[in-house]
Design a protein that fits this description.
heterodimer, A: mainly beta, six-stranded antiparallel sheet, about 35% strand, B: about 950 residues, alpha+beta, seven-stranded mixed sheet, six-stranded mixed sheet, 25 helices, elongated
């Protein structure tokens, strides 16, 4: 194809893809902070009772931390934290990541079948880390009451839209 | 003689649904449930194809993926599917099948004359004959004649095959008796079993051999197994082929679907039981390739499942009791059957003529079987059914790393236990007895209690059958590749005694059937010729795919936009709104130019404007790797060529990252925001690579708890304002800039918009990189855009940026450097000479090679006014003497600022050549250029610091 011929586009807010009994839409922007180092100390200081979620795990509340590595989480909160970016004495580092990720809501009984077309991660088995490769790109996967949130870096939103659009519902 | 359809037999066809198709243009009838092969076998068509090399007539041999002869281009609904095996293609009304490698068709192939030249066309003749007179003379002709089916170039298969990842507790491959027993046993103890069957129905050999299991029909046993599997959360797939076993326990399955796209499964099971059955070996006698010579097991399959018989007078030739049931079935179906058993002590069969202790030496006939010579006696027949023994289907076992052992008692290579993480059962394990196969499967599936019962078959020992080179005439070892026993002998005489060499010299075992029916004969013949045993001779390597899989299935949906996806800018739509045209740069889709018209002209205009007034470009893909912690400076000192610990907060410094070999891996600017926080601005395409190198050093050298790396590139948008009016434009945009020196950086706010301003230039002009969180990108963009007109500025694309940076002599790593370029080749020798501490790549900078004065160094090139730019990639050659490459042109543009072409190049000992003339060679064209400094515009830096 002509390298200029990139006509695909990203999902927009409020738009929904329907694949069989699975629906896909964009999750509204949330406040996000990248936390590395002494994660426990960081969460103690920044929030209260925030669960650290592994692969496809659900949170009861709106605030949660998605584990990326042993010493790194993405902290999701309702509003931006007041703490500034940089290094903190207890041994952790903070960076704003509000706009780094775009989350796709993937809901419905067929959600897992759609996810299985993008990742070999054992969603049914779980993992302490929410980080996966989805469609060949870095992603985080958390669960919701109705399905999943798939977090991908913002620059891949158009690609992931096309990728998900090509996925097939399975019977 | 022609085939025919039995009135009553055929358990898998629906005679109430007649289907019609064409073969080589002639109409043929069939039934629902037929394959192309079963329908053609029951028709008058015996010649279904032509052999690959000699264009000999060929008929049906097998009944599955092993079929070497009946290969068709099949057209259905306007789409041509090339090289389909008749045996695995389900018949659909309206299909049009055309034989391959024949003109005009299989029955009347005009290239049949080639067979008369066979004495001049032995194995390997290509390599000898076509050395004379030049390859190009023969190549077009050979290419026209080579190959099998024709690809329809106009047809683009839809990219609609889903690639589905799956895990399962137990994967059972094959649903013959052993596979069914394994799946059922496992399901009954509560395991989730995936049972994968290559054929359209469960049962394997039970489908045509029949049998009672546990006192009931085998079909009941299969139905109950299916119910057990599904009740325990398992999955059952028919028409699905496990086509490859890969590393880390990955199995690939191609599931063929009717009325929906096929599916491609990537299955990672916890345990695998392989019950893939076996394949019948052929027999070797003169003219054993004639139409009408076929596998006895295949004939039995077609008789039982489709009611198709290949002829009326059948000669069944064997050395095993197992074939007797087949002879009996055909006799009962009304065929005239003669059994020729090589064993003198073979048991007697009632009511069937039997010739014992005699070998079949020759098939008679020209385009089909008309008789056979058995023990010197001519036996009238129109069909010869061959049973030359059994080869276990061990492809997946071997792909998974399994080894084979020779079992002389069973005359077969069987899996060596413990050499692959699979359990092999049934015929694939060399266990041909039904009761024993059920017991093996039951045990492998973890069955509790007794195994399903079946009648134990008592048989006399089979006799091993081998090719006999003393027989007259041509004996075919590989039907698909036209390899004869004499070809194997020739290969051996010429020294190709390894089976791998034999394969490549003769092509034995290649192509769609992958030697399923030929490999054993080939290796047995080679073993006999070289005086080795079969295990000493060995087998060729088994590789995926197990059978041909369409590329479209493997590729899945990742074509077009999805093949090599690019990252997209947050402001892509805004750029499109002002006429941006996009290209890929470093994995990102970025504006190349803005506006309509010739791209080169637009880029020149944009660069000219940026030099004259101001331009804005989107630099968002530049890496933003935050390095945070008390040891951040130490990490950057080690991983960088330039020291960053001496950088003051609020300042930026240009630097290189080297590989361990001292070669420049990336360049970029490092910003220091405070004592413990840096931002590494890596090249757009190197962000991940730089991050990994930083991580390596962090984890292995600096320490995991004192410094951390955050890649926040995706969360920010950077718009760069460059040109003499950059400051004025930013002021017009309502952004109050502090007094910022070159390489200064500051974080400010504009309303609620946090803004990082870095005075960094990639163009040679005063430039400000304005970075905001992505959610503020549109606001920043609109502010700047609104101020452009007043300053006579414009948006500029990456092509203009490339021109501007080349004018200034700023490099692009990977374009102006290659895999050998070290920093001192680029004129950055300072740290190499001064730094006493350790840093990545340091030691490699002091090797004899690194210190050579003949290294290629970056230089500038100029050509006279009015000349066209030098072609990028041109070799630099000396004016006199032997022509050799002294280097090459890395970047070349027409400079709108200077009005003449400029170029950057890597030249051997380049800095010593300043002012001298060098020649640029490209595609036969030689041009003169003058070596000069790399900086062509504003070498004093007045514009940069102004």
């Amino acid at each position: 194809m002509d390298e200029r011929d990139w006509t695909d586009r990203a999902l927009t807010a409020g738009e929904t893809l329907v694949l069989g009994d699975c629906t896909i839409g964009l999750d509204p922007p949330r406040a996000a902070t990248l936390v590395s180092g002494n994660v426990a100390a960081a969460l103690d200081m920044l929030t209260s009772d925030v669960p650290i979620l592994g692969l496809a795990e659900q949170s009861a509340g709106p605030a949660f931390a998605l584990r990326i590595a042993r010493d790194q989480v993405l902290l999701i909160t309702n509003k931006p934290l007041s703490a500034g970016e940089g290094w903190y004495g207890p041994g952790f580092a903070l960076s704003r990541a509000d706009d780094r990720f775009q989350a796709f809501q993937i809901n419905g009984p067929g959600a897992r079948d759609i996810l299985a077309q993008g990742t070999s991660a054992p969603i049914n088995v779980g993992s302490p880390s929410a980080a996966i490769l989805f469609g060949g790109v870095f992603a985080l996967l958390s669960g919701t009451k109705t399905g999943y949130l798939l977090w991908i870096e913002r620059g891949w939103t158009a690609y992931l839209t096309s990728f998900l659009r090509m996925a097939r519902p399975l019977d | 003689m022609s085939g025919w359809r039995h009135d009553a037999l055929g358990s898998e066809i629906d005679r109430s649904q007649s289907l019609s198709f064409t073969f080589d243009g002639r109409k043929v009838a069939g039934f629902q449930g037929d394959t192309l092969a079963s329908a053609l076998l029951a028709s008058e068509h015996r010649i279904l194809g032509r052999s690959f090399k000699y264009h000999r007539p060929r008929g049906l041999w097998g009944f599955g993926a092993e079929e070497p002869n009946a290969i068709f281009d099949v057209q259905l609904n306007g789409v041509t599917h090339p090289n389909q095996r008749a045996t695995t293609t389900h018949l659909v009304d309206g299909m049009a099948a055309r034989s391959v490698n024949a003109a005009p068709d299989a029955a009347r192939d005009r290239f049949a004359l080639l067979d008369r030249l066979h004495r001049f066309l032995p194995a390997g003749f290509y390599y000898k004959t076509f050395m004379a007179l030049g390859w190009k003379l023969y190549e077009p002709m050979i290419r026209r004649m080579a190959g099998l089916g024709q690809v329809d170039a106009a047809f683009e298969p839809p990219a609609d095959t889903p690639q589905i990842n799956a895990t399962c507790d137990l994967l059972v491959i094959g649903s013959g008796p052993a596979g069914l027993a394994a799946a059922r046993a496992a399901a009954q103890v509560g395991r989730a079993v995936w049972l994968i069957e290559d054929a359209a129905r469960l049962g394997g050999s039970l489908r045509w051999r029949g049998g009672q299991i546990g006192g009931a029909s085998w079909a009941d046993f299969a139905t109950e197994t299916q119910a057990d599997v599904e009740a325990n959360g398992g999955r059952l797939m028919t028409d699905a082929t496990i086509w490859g076993a890969f590393d880390h326990g990955l199995f690939a399955a191609w599931q063929r679907c009717v009325g929906a796209p096929d599916r491609h499964w990537r299955i990672r099971p916890r345990q695998v039981i392989l019950a893939a059955g076996s394949i019948e070996r052929p027999l070797w006698f003169a003219n054993n390739d004639l139409p009408g010579v076929m596998s006895a097991e295949a004939a039995m399959f077609f008789l039982a499942c489709h009611g198709s018989l290949p002829g009326r007078r059948l000669l069944v030739t064997t050395a095993s009791d197992r074939t007797y049931a087949i002879a009996r079935a055909f006799a009962d179906a009304g065929a005239h059957v003669t059994v020729a058993d090589q064993r003198a002590e073979a048991p007697e069969i009632d009511d069937i003529r039997q010739i014992r202790g005699a070998n079949l030496t020759e098939a008679k006939g020209r385009t089909g079987v008309e008789g056979a010579m058995v023990g010197g006696i001519k036996v009238p027949c129109d069909t010869i059914l061959c049973a030359g023994g059994v080869t276990p289907t061990v492809h997946l076992w071997c792909q998974a790393g399994g080894k084979l052992d020779w079992d002389p008692d069973r005359d077969m290579l069987v899996p060596r236990p413990g050499t692959a993480p699979l359990t092999v059962v049934g015929a694939a394990n060399g266990t041909l007895d039904l009761a024993a196969a059920l017991a093996e499967g039951h045990a492998a599936g973890g069955g509790t209690g007794p195994a399903p019962e079946a009648e134990t078959q008592t048989t006399q020992a089979s006799a091993p059958v081998r090719p006999d080179p003393s027989l007259p005439g041509r004996q075919w070892v590989d039907l698909q590749n036209d390899v004869t026993l004499k070809d194997v002998g020739l290969a051996g005489r010429e020294g190709f005694t390894s089976v791998e060499h034999l394969k490549r010299y003769t092509t034995l075992g290649m192509a769609t059937d992958q030697g399923r029916t030929s490999n054993f004969g080939g290796l047995a013949a080679m073993a006999a010729q070289t005086g080795r045993t079969i295990p000493e001779t060995g087998t060729t390597t088994y590789r995926p795919p197990f059978q041909p899989v369409p590329f479209g299935v493997i590729a899945g949906p990742r074509r077009g936009d999805l093949f090599n996806p690019l990252r997209r800018l947050t402001l892509e739509e805004a750029h499109r709104d002002v006429g941006a045209r996009f290209r890929e740069y470093g994995g990102w889709l970025r504006p190349s130019v803005y506006g309509v018209g010739d791209e080169v002209t637009l880029a020149q205009d944009e660069a000219r404007t940026a030099r004259a007034t101001v331009g804005i470009f989107d630099g968002s893909p530049l890496g933003k790797l935050e390095v945070i912690g008390p040891k951040a400076a130490e990490l950057l000192d080690f991983t960088g060529y330039m020291r960053m610990s001496t950088l003051k907060p609020g300042r930026a410094r240009y630097g290189f990252m080297l590989s361990e070999t001292g070669v420049v891996y990336d360049d970029g600017v490092v910003l220091r925001l405070d004592e413990t926080r840096f931002i590494v601005s890596a090249s757009s395409s190197h962000v991940d690579g730089v991050r990994f190198r930083l991580e390596d050093a962090r984890q292995d050298r600096i320490g995991r708890d004192q410094v951390f790396i955050h890649d926040v590139t995706a969360g920010y948008v950077t718009l760069t304002v460059t040109g003499p009016k950059a400051r004025a434009l930013i002021a017009d945009a309502g952004i109050g800039l502090p007094d910022l020196p070159h390489m200064g950086v500051v974080e400010i706010s504009v309303g609620d918009m946090p803004l990082r301003v870095a005075r960094i230039s990639f163009t040679g002009d005063t430039s400000f990189e304005l970075t905001v969180p992505a959610r503020h990108a549109r606001a920043l963009r609109d502010r700047l855009d609104g101020a452009l007109a007043a300053q006579s500025g414009r948006w500029i694309g990456l092509e203009a940026v490339m021109i501007l940076r080349a004018e200034k002599g700023f490099i692009l790593v990977g374009k102006d450097t290659d895999g050998l370029t070290m920093p001192h080749d680029l004129g950055w020798g300072g740290p190499r000479q001064k730094r006493q501490d350790e840093y990545l790549g340091k030691r490699a900078l002091f090797t004899p090679e690194a210190k050579s004065n003949m290294r290629r160094q970056l230089i500038g090139l100029t050509v006279p006014d009015g000349a066209r730019p030098i072609v990028t990639g041109s070799h630099l050659i000396p004016r006199d003497g032997t022509r050799r490459s002294l280097g090459f042109v890395t970047s070349s543009y027409h400079s709108p600022t200077l009005g003449h072409p400029i170029a950057l190049a890597l030249l051997e000992d380049g800095r010593a050549q300043m002012g001298r003339e060098i020649y640029c060679f490209n595609d036969g064209d030689v041009r003169a250029a003058q070596v000069g400094p790399i900086c062509a515009v504003d070498p004093a830096g007045d514009r940069l610091h102004g």
